[in-house]
Specification:
The chain is mostly helical and 105 residues long. It contains three helices and no strands. This is Interferon-induced transmembrane protein.
């Protein structure tokens, strides 16, 4: 008696080998919460697509989603850093302006 070998059946062999690509879900969530929400949301969406595409046999799609999740996570982190640095410069400029105003009175 032979085993069924259709898709999703016992004994079926997937058309791809190895482990799925990294989905960067942790980095996407951290970038969304801590850095930049508008760029973090697409990172989460793409990272959630990696494992489902891999399970469906779409290795190229899983790799593409993984790369996009990584890119959006990096962009979100960079945007967050730029905003924080700009805010700190703004605060120091206001502090210096306040010192100048206090010195003139």
């Amino acid at each position: 008696m032979s085993q069924p070998t259709g898709p999703g059946q016992y004994g079926a062999q997937p058309p791809y080998q190895g482990a799925p690509p990294n989905n960067y879900l942790v980095w996407a969530i951290l970038a969304t919460v801590l850095c930049c929400l508008p760029l973090g949301v697409p990172a989460i969406v793409f990272s959630s697509q990696v494992n489902s595409k891999w399970a469906a046999g779409d290795a190229a799609g899983a790799l593409e989603a993984s790369n996009k999740a990584k890119q959006f996570s990096i962009w979100a982190a960079i945007a967050g850093i730029v905003v924080v640095v700009g805010y700190l410069i703004f605060l120091f400029a206001l502090g210096g302006l306040a010192l100048l105003q206090a010195g003139q009175s």
